[in-house]
Amino acid sequence: MPPTEQRIILKFADQPGYANDIECYLRHGGYEMLHKAFDMEPGDICHEVELSRLRGRGGAGFPAGMKWKFLDRKSGKPIYLICNADESEPGTFKDRQIIHKDPHQLIESMMIAAYATGTKLAFVYIREEFPEGALILEKAIEEARAANFVGPKILGSDYSCEIIVHRGAGAYICGEETGLIESLEGKRPYPRIKPPYFPAVLGLYQCPTIVNNVETLCNIKHIIEIGGEAYSHIGTPAATGTRIWCVSGHVRKPGYYEFAGGAITLGELIYDVCEGMRPGRKLKAVIPGGSSAKVLRADERFHGHLKDHTSFDWGLKDIPLDYDSFMAVGSMSGSGGVIVLDDSVDMVEALANLNAFYAHESCGQCTPCREGSLWMKKITSRMCSGEARSEDADLLVSISKQIEGRTICAFGEACSWPTQSFVAKFKDEFVAKASEAQSQATGSENGDRLI
Q1: Blockwise average pLDDT, block size 10, the chain, 451 residues
Q2: Which of 25, 381, 384, 426 has an alpha carbon within 20 to 30 A of 242's alpha carbon?
Q3: Cβ 65 vs Cβ 311: under 8 Å
Q4: Are residues 258 and 219 in the same domain?
């Protein structure tokens, strides 16, 4: 039997007959936690979120309660809340499921978060490629406003807050919070330098701003329901609550699955939940946290210590699904996008595909990223067209290291890490491309001589 999901965020999302309108949401207990939150002090709500040890579900895994705690509440400026629904990381498709199937859960959680942080105006920044999702959210916000859950004097109180849906133009870089803020202000989405532009102090319109992604925010209503302490006991101490994992690639049953943090291993997810590889194929590699995470080989063994000093000796299948375990084996859980690759994959071609994506999506602000991502694309494209050279593998790594750590935002790492890990883990395939190209060139020269 496959491991049983613990659906909290997706509890109603795929239930037969469950609709994304407010009537259905109210029948299932919707907005009851907003009522409960309004009977609490805003500071107490923030304390519960801190107690929950909820970590961001967008990539970095930064504690949400700590982010809220950094808010500059004494500046006298307006405070803004932004829901990051730009979900642009290849291999990730969880947030759109929530938006399409249970939008009021997001709106209720946003209103609780807005009340707790003193926000009077909140935004949902949604990527251009989710046009239907934007319409669903706008309809849901109108329904919530008509029911007095959004807008002026919510639930008869003195507190008012509006939510605006803002559609992006389809740029991957807008998933980075300061690039998103620049875009929301109507400018090019160039990420800001941190410091001084930490959004909690200098965010939207140079005002204190909280940016959390869809899945992170949806946890807020559930934390209010059971309390932060109880929530912290779901999962493991380093990965509290549940996490939605998006599995794509060469498995029999791709999809999105919700489990408590650390409750299952990567092997259980692939072989029990997703029913293993396609017929006649073997597992070759896994990218565990969206395309920017470092790739892991199926035949690797990992040795080391976790943050709590616990030692481990794992194969790929033994890695628990949590933040710290993936970091300990040299990758990251990232956005929860698990991309499974079988033995039919040419790893040079796979990297060429990723490099083409990152070269296209670089915002161009930083020279190392703008130029380096394009050079990596050109080299891997050339390798796949039969013109590989013996020095290409080392050249790719050299370029990636000249990007890493030399850019304003983490896009530099996002485009560097795939190249570094693909070459390190599958260098034999890169060398083989060069040997094949050399053999073809030699054969052509010999043929010319014969003619």
Answers
A1: 91 94 97 98 98 92 94 95 97 96 98 98 97 98 98 97 96 96 97 96 98 98 98 96 98 98 97 97 97 97 92 97 96 96 98 98 97 98 96 98 97 97 98 92 62 48
A2: 25
A3: no
A4: no
